[in-house]
Amino acid sequence: MTIPQYPNKDVSRRERQKAINKKSYLKNREKAIKDARKWAVKNADKVHKYQVEYRNLHKKEARAWSKKMYHRKKTEVEFIRKKLKQHLQYNYGLSIEEYDKMMGECNNSCLICKKQVKLCIDHNHETGKIRGLLCKKCNTMIGMAGDSILLLQAAIGYLQSNNQEVAE
Fold first, then answer.
1. For the chain, how big is the Rg over CA atoms in Å?
2. Which of 94, 113, 125, 138 could connect to 134 by a Cys-Cys bridge, CB 3.0–4.6 Å?
3. How far apart are CA 134 and CA 116, in angstroms?
4. Which fold has domain 108-168?
5. DSSP string spanning the chain?
């Protein structure tokens, strides 16, 4: 991207500054996103207030968009893949090809219970490292245990001591 030079009278000051800002943003994109998320969490009340005001000012557009989304076919493969791609990239930095590879490696089944149901991406919340694909129940179980191996082992011991069947 080239930044318009000052002597060029055809380019306004605003356009030159916009180009400079875009170049800076692209150079520091990850930090900018991280900072924006921190600010949004810290200022949740401001964000919520802005969202409410925006919705009130743009009711017709919002309603039209909602109707459009409501009437869109849920089985539209292209639309679903696009949304999945956005979700994977935004939340996990994962491409759709990497996700498909993971699905193939686990044979489209949960790595814990082996059920073939809709799978969630299990990741370490501290490091962000992706561990694998789990069903919602198994992912929730690990999350509720706070990713603690000791707590999960204690739960296994509890079940065994009370003669409960352990799922295999």
1. 23
2. 138
3. 10
4. His-Me finger endonuclease fold (3.40.1800)
5. -PPPPTT-TTS-HHHHHHHHHHHHHHHTHHHHHHHHHHHHHHTHHHHHHHHHHHHHHTHHHHHHHHHHHHHS-TT-HHHHHHHHHHHHHHHH---HHHHHHHHHHTTTS-TTT---S-EEEEE-TTT--EEEEEEHHHHHHHHHTTT-HHHHHHHHHHHHHTTPPPP-
